[in-house]
Design goal:
The structure holds two protein chains of two kinds. Chain A is mainly alpha-helical. Chain A is built from 25 helices and seven strands. In chain A, the strands form two sheets. A four-stranded parallel β-sheet of chain A has the order 2-1-3-4. Chain A is globular. Chain B is mainly α. Chain B has five helices and two strands, in the order ββααααα. A two-stranded antiparallel sheet of chain B has the order 1-2. Chain B is globular, with a radius of gyration of 14 Å. In chain B, 39% of the residues are buried. The chains are: A mainly alpha, B mainly alpha.
Chain lengths: 507, 111
């Protein structure tokens, strides 16, 4: 499992645009999913003789279904504004990791098969036949994009490379080249209920252990209830919160907040996962199936509110798509969605982010903190891409940036932001999002983290920052692994509710 | 998938070197995996591996990191019941590296 040898980039004060190195990441190929994984999802597991036709057919379907994809294929004027905005390009110098080049891998095929000039005079318009070589490039480079959408912020046309990557992966799946990591997870969440494959009894055992731990540490009987019918709130959180460090520290934080608020809440063994990798592989039906576990659990338990834990892409799916996917929020138009809308309490946002929930309580004066308990920490905040650019929190623009920071400042005394162009809407991805959080992509993960590591290093040197808070399970896992490559301690990363957990007063 | 011969037995591994058939595990397999991972097995390592396997037998999943640290702490003393100690034993991370040596499936997800 030792990662292959590669050169770790050197930290610098500013992230410079590198001199291009053609093909420097062409060797990077994530493991391909096998028959067992692919067949469960209804995809082939090897290229058939008709793979080319299947690929073009699927591309045609997607172009018809998603108007955005066709616009993105047509609209690019090659202005170059995106070229130096991708963390993977900045960290690897491979020109195919420039967003425009990543798009071009698909655009040249689109032109050939779906535009008149490309069909008639391909040599004039940069149109090319789909070849095995191009397909391999798709596989390699659509798995060196974390779908973080930073490039789209700087594109004058708003072209979203993430959507192109997603379409590329869907076509790859359709011809039999699925990615092992994401597809195994998409299967597991449907079979067992969460991405980890944590069965109900293991979950119960883990939660009972946490109750003991918190009682030992605080003397207060904080509960971690599961499958409680009639509870007011159902918490849906990434399964890594049950399993990993530092994730579990935030789970303890949520439980303490619910305890202090005196509210009845529950987890669900059926919906024991907030994450939805259906987004990463861009299959709408899969995304819906995964999202519907949450609707089913909410209906069965009869809860009035749904709160989502610290998970970046889950919050994007929840905030932006749940309403029509599964009826949490207004918009779903099937009987179950309507039933759920009647059941959920319309006085609260549905769904609600745990940070919105905690911040509301803080504003009401319902929580008390001893901020000095966080005095050993000098904290900064890493904005997670899907929260930053794919969702919002609260009632004001930018709430997804201010609310987590407001919480941190309410529970701790020392906070310093990183450079403004590296946070907020322009935040750099952790380097492990979008289905890249796998050991076989360690090189791209480490190199892609460079811009964030440079920004962090500046506040470590200048402000003595020793803790980077984030609200995403992928970011936490990615940084835990990647920080040591750059000479930082892995325990520097943690959750916002980990800080809440440290300072909250309980009785 | 790659086949390897361990103690005279043909064993299939997946791309990442995990066992394809969990029933193939033996202490010889663990020693082989540990050597591949450049982990030198000591009694302390075996304490962790034995616990992982017991837990897996009961729950069909590796224990959460907290569950593991607590169990090790109870067995070997509170100074060893922490993440740091486990990382000293299994530098690539207890969840993945110890699971591999112990013949458990690789945990997946955001970990």
């Amino acid at each position: 499992m030792a990662a292959p040898k590669f050169e770790v980039p050197t930290l610098t004060e500013f992230t410079a645009v590198p001199k291009i190195q053609e093909g420097s990441m062409a060797h990077m190929k994530s493991f391909v999913a096998n028959e067992k994984v692919q067949s469960f999802l209804g995809y082939p597991w090897e290229l058939g003789e008709d793979w080319k036709e299947r690929a073009i057919d699927r591309m045609g379907d997607l172009l018809g279904k998603y108007r955005s994809l066709r616009v993105f294929m047509d609209a690019c004027v090659h202005c170059g504004a995106c070229t130096d905005k991708c963390h993977y390009f900045l960290g690897t110098a491979d020109p195919k990791n420039m967003p425009v080049a990543r798009q071009e891998l698909m655009r040249k095929v689109y032109r050939r098969y779906f535009t008149l000039p490309g069909k008639m005079a391909p040599w004039l318009v940069g149109a090319e036949d789909l070849t095995q070589e191009t397909l391999d490039d798709w596989y390699n480079y659509y798995h060196q994009c974390s779908e973080c959408r930073r490039c789209s912020v700087y594109c004058p046309y708003g072209i979203d490379t993430a959507e192109i990557t997603m379409a590329g992966r869907e076509i790859l799946n359709y011809v039999g080249m699925g990615q092992k990591y994401s597809n195994e997870i998409v299967g597991k969440v449907q079979k067992i209920g969460n991405n980890l494959g944590l069965p109900g009894p293991a979950l119960e055992d883990t939660l009972a252990g946490l109750e003991e731990d918190v009682l030992d540490a605080t003397g207060v009987a904080v509960k971690f209830p599961i499958d409680v019918e009639g509870a007011e709130i159902m918490l849906v959180t990434p399964s890594a919160d049950f399993f990993s460090e530092p994730h579990v520290e935030s789970l303890i934080g949520y439980a303490k907040v619910f305890h202090a608020a005196g509210v009845s809440w529950t987890l669900s063994s059926k919906a024991s996962e907030a994450g939805n990798f259906g987004l990463f592989v861009a299959n709408y039906d899969t995304m819906r199936t995964v999202a519907n576990r949450i609707r089913d659990a909410a209906l069965e338990l009869g809860v009035k509110r749904i709160v989502v834990g610290e998970c970046g892409h889950a919050w994007r799916v929840a905030y932006s798509f749940w309403n029509t996917l599964n009826g949490v929020g207004y918009g779903g138009d099937d009987p179950y969605a309507k039933q759920l809308q009647q059941q959920l309490d319309s006085r609260y946002p549905q769904p609600q982010h745990i940070c919105e929930y905690t911040w509301d309580l803080i504003q009401q004066g319902a929580l008390e903190f001893d901020k000095s308990l966080n005095d050993d920490r000098v904290i900064t905040m890493h904005d997670s891409c899907n929260v930053a650019r794919g969702s919002r929190m609260g009632n004001e623009a930018g709430g997804q940036f201010t609310i987590p920071r407001n919480i941190i400042k309410a529970v701790a005394n020392n906070f310093h932001d990183m450079a403004s162009e590296t946070i907020g809407e322009g935040t750099f991805c952790c380097g492990g999002g979008g289905g890249l959080l796998t050991d076989d992509l360690m090189e791209v993960r480490v190199k892609g983290a460079l811009p964030r590591m440079n920004a962090l290093n500046n506040v470590v040197q200048g402000e003595q920052v020793n803790f980077m808070a984030t609200i995403c399970a992928i970011c936490k896992a990615q940084f835990t692994k990647v920080l040591p490559y750059y000479g930082f301690d892995m325990s520097m990363v943690g959750g916002v509710h980990q800080l809440v957990s440290t300072a909250i007063k309980l009785d | 998938m790659p086949m390897v011969t361990i103690a005279g037995k043909e064993i299939e591994l997946d791309e990442e070197g995990f066992l394809t058939n969990l029933a193939d595990w033996s202490r010889d397999v663990a020693d082989y995996m540990a050597a591949e991972e450049k982990v030198e097995m000591t009694d302390a390592h075996w304490e962790v591996i034995d616990f992982l396997r017991e837990y897996y037998d009961e729950y069909q999943i590796a224990p959460a990191v907290r569950v593991l640290t607590k169990a090790i702490g109870k067995k070997l003393g509170p100074d060893k019941g922490n993440n740091k100690y486990l990382y000293e034993l299994f530098p690539y991370g207890p969840a993945k590296q110890a699971c591999k040596i112990g013949g458990l499936p690789k945990p997946t997800g955001c970990i």
